[in-house]
Design a protein that fits this description.
Elements lengths: L6 H23 L2 H4 L2 H22 L8 H19 L2 H4 L4 H4 L1
Helix pairs in contact: 1-4, 3-4
């Protein structure tokens, strides 16, 4: 991967990663785990992720299971899912055929 030269390019590159993680996890878990508890469930998941990050940052160490970056990615993906849920998109839309393959 080529290093981005502009901040917006860097942002776009991270958004591609978020999309890939979202698609992979969505294929594994589906919608029910989100729709069951809705936005409140997402808030609880976010809280857990952020608490884990704060703990590791205070101890100044890398986790043994999920990297710090993976935790931050999960926080970002959950935030996007929450926005899609609020807009009604998460419940009514499906992955594109392109993402399904």
């Amino acid at each position: 991967m080529k290093e981005p030269e502009q901040l917006d390019e860097a942002f776009e590159e991270i958004c591609k990663i978020l999309k890939n993680v979202f698609v992979k996890k969505h294929k594994d878990y589906g919608k029910d785990n989100i729709l069951e508890m809705g936005e409140l469930g997402i808030a609880f998941r976010e809280t857990e992720k952020v608490s884990r990050l704060k703990h590791l940052l205070r101890e100044e160490r890398e986790p043994q299971y999920e990297s710090m970056e993976e935790n931050w990615i999960d926080v970002a993906v959950y935030a996007v899912i929450a926005i899609m849920l609020r807009r009604g998109w998460f419940k009514k839309l499906e992955l594109s055929e392109e993402s399904e393959s």
